[in-house]
């Protein structure tokens, strides 16, 4: 499956690019994420950067509760909590934010890295994350996403393939496409499942290495987790784990670890109505 694995935004890739992160690139070369623009400071308080030893970014993630972080299984399947931290509260990789240690990793028991299915994981932090104007949880989407709906992707993925990580958090506006359209687009590449959601704009715009595990959002609610795609922005739709399909798994995982987390989610749902 080497050819297939080369398509995936694997979490091990940052070992290859992290040394380049601190190179003396001009500011103009940090400006784009493959068609994206800089996210305004404080506009994405749920964004998390997963970093080896708290320094080198390797995947994105999102803050779900003060102790729970959502990401992709392929980001953390072979990782040990002791070797990485979650950084929140900053739009920059080289400045600001606060790092939190990870207590436990739980990735989906049926995650299949051969076909990239059930690509979802939950991280539990050692201590409670302090919320502020720049740090806050995102609501999880439990409703269908229709074709053509506007979605927003954020992340620190490389700005080209191959390429370097930008210092600034980038954002990109996308549109949802149907499962049938996505399946047809990838029919000779890899299977697409109904537990996934796909989004696309045009060639030259899309996710890339380092965006993996990050949030895809519709109107302030997370609908997807960056899973895989053709590196990078080649005009094929990117594939995301569909949050809606895994709500029961998420709630069960939180309940099994600590009932307070489930109560937190239920409280948020109650406050919405």
From TrEMBL:
Domain annotation Peptidase S1: ranges: 33-255
Domain of life: Eukaryota
Coiled-coil region: none
Leader sequence segment: 1-19
Keywords: Disulfide bond, Hydrolase, Protease, Serine protease, Signal
Keyword Hydrolase: yes
Pfam families the UniProt entry points to: Trypsin
Alphabetical list of SMART domains matching this protein: Tryp_SPc (SM00020)
Family: Belongs to the peptidase S1 family.
Name of the protein: Chymotrypsin-1-like
UniProt source species: Galleria mellonella (Greater wax moth)
């Amino acid at each position: 499956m080497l050819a297939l694995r080369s398509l995936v935004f694997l979490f091990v890739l940052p070992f290859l690019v992290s040394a380049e992160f601190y190179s003396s690139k001009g500011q103009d070369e940090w400006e784009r994420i493959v068609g994206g623009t800089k996210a305004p400071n404080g506009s994405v308080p749920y964004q998390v950067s997963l970093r080896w030893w708290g320094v080198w970014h390797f995947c994105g993630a999102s803050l779900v509760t003060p102790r729970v972080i959502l990401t992709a299984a392929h980001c953390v399947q072979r990782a040990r909590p002791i070797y990485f931290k979650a950084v929140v509260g900053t739009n920059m990789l080289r400045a600001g934010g606060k790092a939190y240690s990870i207590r436990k990793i739980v990735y989906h028991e049926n995650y299949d890295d051969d076909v990239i299915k059930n690509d979802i994981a939950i991280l539990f932090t050692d201590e409670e994350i302090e919320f502020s104007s720049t740090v806050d949880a995102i609501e999880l989407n439990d409703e269908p996403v229709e074709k053509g709906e506007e979605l927003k992707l954020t992340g620190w993925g490389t700005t080209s393939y191959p390429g370097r990580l930008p210092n600034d958090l980038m954002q990109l506006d996308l549109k949802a496409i149907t499962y049938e359209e996505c399946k047809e687009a990838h029919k000779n590449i890899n299977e697409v499942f109904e537990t996934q959601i796909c989004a696309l704009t045009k060639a030259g715009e899309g996710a890339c290495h380092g965006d993996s595990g990050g949030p895809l959002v519709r109107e302030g609610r997370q609908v997807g987790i960056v899973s895989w795609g053709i590196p990078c922005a080649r005009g094929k739709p990117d594939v995301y784990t569909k949050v809606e399909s895994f709500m029961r798994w998420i709630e069960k995982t939180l309940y099994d670890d600590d009932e307070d987390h489930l109560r937190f989610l239920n409280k948020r749902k109650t406050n919405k109505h």
